Amino acid sequence: MATRRPPRRFLRTLLSRSTFLKLALLYLVWTVIEAQISYYRVARTERESRAQAVLHEPTRVYIASLHWNNEKILRAEWNRAVVDLVNTLGPENVFVSVYESGSWDDSKGALRELDEELEKTGVARKIILDEETHRDLIDGPPEKEGWITIPDGRTMPRRIPYLSRLRNLSLQPLRDLAGNGTRFDHVLFLGDVVFSVPDIITLIKTNNGHYAAACSLDFSKPPNFYDTFALRDARGHEHASQTWPYFRASKSRKAMINAQPVPVSSCWNGIVAMPASSFTGIRGLQFRGIPDSLAAAHHLEASECCLIHADNPASRTRGVFVNPAVRVGYNRAAYDAVHPGAHLKTGSEPPGSGSEGGSSKSWLSLKEIYWGLWRNRVARWTTTSWFEEREVRRRVERWVKGGGGGGEKGGFCIVDEMQIVVHNGWKHL
Q1: What is the DSSP string of 297-359?
Q2: N or C, which terminus of the chain has less Cβ within 10 Å?
Q3: Which of the residues in the chain have pLDDT under 50?
Q4: How far apart are the first and last CA of the chain?
Q5: What is the pLDDT of residue 355?
């Protein structure tokens, strides 16, 4: 009796399934190996960056910062960190410019305390405590630019032009000093975050000092990073995943996986270092929003912290980078979560000492790395930013055709949003 042979179709199906399972198994094994390699690479980079967090030559730094209702973090963390930074860099090498606007908590009192502490160091500074609240702004006469008519008929100030004006005011002393021949190496934009002196030194030394801008990574509720509004990868896309390794573009993602400075199109993320020369002279950069006609008629918005990189010619030649070795938090718990085993400098230990976050432990667990790789892959495989970006481009094109001018160079910054100032902060429309 002849033996019945399996149908060829069945054999092909069995073979294809077997091949698929083998490939899937190989892919899983490779991901485990990749996660292990990334874990040790991140830990090694952490050790090296902290060991090198020392400035061997005097560095002149202009510190610029905006504050609104930040009393808690000012008194708990920020004031002390700024004084430590001034003492480390040398008061003669620093200018501190702080602009506070209309807080209803005691931010003004906290900043007066900072002023007193900075007075003891002898550092040059300008701390402006502006009494104008958001309510005062809204109730005042509308300005020619930065205001729009909203659906209920009211004319309201746009959030981004408002913030841009304040940021430009915080930089005015830099321009005045430059006119008198006083120069600085870096502008350091300090957000309302927890940071340490080694964080700042590591940031300044990003990519051996060759950059148009270098940014930290910021966290409010780790493991998710915070500033999604301003961050764009090397191809101008928004993040693929809010957890490590974050990015959609291969160039940015691979740099993050390799624990190297990450090339991006724009970033802000808590703390930013930029060459001071970018903001001085006739062609010095100014913060701005997109035109009112584009924002209002087409329901679009873009962060001033992204547009500044789009406007900066050096962004194309020197590059914009996120330094994953510099991680800051909007509260102590967030900072500690991304600095396992570390504690902040107290002022009694020199920068770069092992006690300042010099732990050899990776700030990412092996589990976070493994699942982060998979989340990012799945996000890239199942989602795309193409449709939203195409819609934004179409609206900008309609605006240009309707007499909007020569276009908008910060197109990669623009999103389908509208943000206005309200009495207790800001809101989307």
Answers
A1: HHT-EE-HHHHHHHH-THHHHT-EEEEEEEEEESSHHHHHHTSTT-----SSS-TT-TTTT--
A2: N
A3: 11, 14, 344-359
A4: 80
A5: 39
Contact call for residues 284 and 175 (beta carbons, < 8 A): yes
Contact in structure between 157 and 420 (CB atoms under 8 Å):
yes
Write the burial class of residue 214 (CB in 10 Å: 0-12 exposed, 13-18 middle, 19+ buried). buried
Could you give the CA distance from residue 123 to residue 109 in angstroms, rounded to a whole number? 20
d(CA 306, CA 399): 20
Q: Which of 86, 141, 136, 93 is nearest to 115 (CA)?
A: 86
Burial class (CB in 10 A: 0-12, 13-18, 19+), 1: exposed
- Look up residue 350 and give its two tokens: 């020199």
Quote the CA–CA distance of 388 and 140 in Å, as a whole number.
36
Rounded to whole angstroms, how far apart are CA atoms 264 and 251?
Answer: 9
Residue with tokens 């920020």: 78
Across all residues in the chain, what is the average pLDDT? 90
- Please give the backbone phi and psi of residue 324, each rounded to the nearest 5 degrees, phi first: -70, -10
Token pair 């020392």 in the structure block, residue: 54
d(CA 283, CA 281): 5
pTM assigned to the model? 0.90
Residue 409 structure tokens? 């160079």
d(CA 353, CA 331): 24
Enumerate residues 6+ apart whose C-beta is below 8 A from 73: 192, 193, 194, 330, 331
Residues 409, 316 contacting (CB under 8 angstroms): no
- Taking only the tens place, the pLDDT of each residue in 323-349 is 999 999 999 999 999 998 765 443 334
HSE-up of 67 (CA within 13 Å, CB side)?
34
Spell out a b/e string for 82-95, using b for 16 or more CB atoms within 10 Å of the CB, else e. bbbbbebbebebbb
Question: pLDDT digit string (tens) for 56-112?
Answer: 889 999 999 999 999 999 999 999 999 999 999 999 999 999 999 999 999 999 999
The conformational region for residue 148 under phi > 0 = left, psi -120 to 50 = alpha, else beta, is beta
